[in-house]
Design goal:
With about 270 residues, this protein is α+β, with helices and mostly antiparallel strands. Helices cover about 65% and strands about 15% of the residues.
């Protein structure tokens, strides 16, 4: 064998070894691919199982969330209803507070007026004390004059007898005039019934637009008489006599003149 034959033989040997290595490598790679495919398939199944589990868990969580939403919605509705009740209660309490504030202001005003009235009464009381001292002096002086009056009593008694005789004559005349007036249906108070007498009374009871005072026909009051109402120095309004008895009269308020509500203790007078 020559050199060329040896070279070709060696080349063929090398190529055979090369192709053998390639064949071995291809076979190994083929076997690795199957194993990898089997492992991937197992991983796929595991992932599918995990996905199914996750979907089931997700569905359960969605159902739980939906139920929680419904429960929360119900709780929210209850809370809103409770809130509305609380708001109504707050509005009611606010109104009560406002009314109490107004009443407190009125009471405070009444207290100030009462204090002013008490102060005025103290001044009047001091004036009365001074007046009593003066009257005591006047009584002493009057006592001294009593002797002089005693001396004149005899003369007055004589004059009284004369006046008594004259009174009998006048009584007889008045009796005749009364008979004539009755026969003619003439009321002796007809000309003076609308004249309001001097009244200084106090409100003893109130009821709505009506109030009662401790004065009546014995004081000259008649139905239709109009009197002024004061609380201290403050003008409250006017009332008209609706019903009157001996020592009690019921009056109704005249809305056109009212500046405040009549209260027990208010002064009722005709001096103005």
């Amino acid at each position: 064998m020559n050199l060329l034959g040896k070279i070709l033989t060696l080349l063929i040997l090398v190529m055979s070894i090369f192709f053998l290595a390639i064949a071995l490598m291809t076979s190994a790679a083929h076997r690795n691919w199957k194993v990898a495919a089997s492992e991937l398939q197992q991983e796929y199944k595991a992932i599918q199982q995990q996905l199914t589990t996750a979907k089931t868990s997700t569905l359960e969580k969605e159902q739980f969330i939906q139920a929680e939403k419904v429960a929360r919605a119900q709780q929210l509705a209850q809370l809103e209803s409770q809130l509305a009740i609380y708001r109504n209660e707050i509005d009611s309490l606010s109104k009560q507070v406002s009314e109490e504030t107004i009443l407190s202001q009125q009471r405070f005003s009444s207290l100030e007026q009462a204090e002013a009235r008490a102060s005025q009464l103290d001044k009047e009381n001091k004036g009365l004390t001074e007046r009593n001292v003066t009257l005591s002096k006047e009584v002493a002086t009057s006592y001294e004059k009593l002797t002089d009056f005693t001396n004149k009593t005899f003369e007055l008694n004589t004059r009284i007898e004369e006046l008594s005789t004259l009174n009998k004559d006048l009584s007889s005349t008045v009796a005749k005039q009364n008979k004539v007036m009755k026969r003619l249906n003439i009321d002796e108070n007809e000309l003076v019934k609308d004249i309001v007498p001097l009244i200084n009374a106090v409100v003893v009871r109130t009821e709505g637009d009506l109030f009662a005072i401790a004065a009546g026909t014995d004081d000259g009051l008649r139905e239709g008489h109009i009197l002024d109402i004061y609380r201290g120095q403050r003008f409250v309004g006017r009332g008209v006599v609706r019903n009157v008895e001996n020592n009690l009269a019921v009056l109704g308020t005249l809305s056109a003149f009212m500046q405040a509500t009549v209260q027990e203790g208010d002064d009722v007078t005709s001096k103005f």
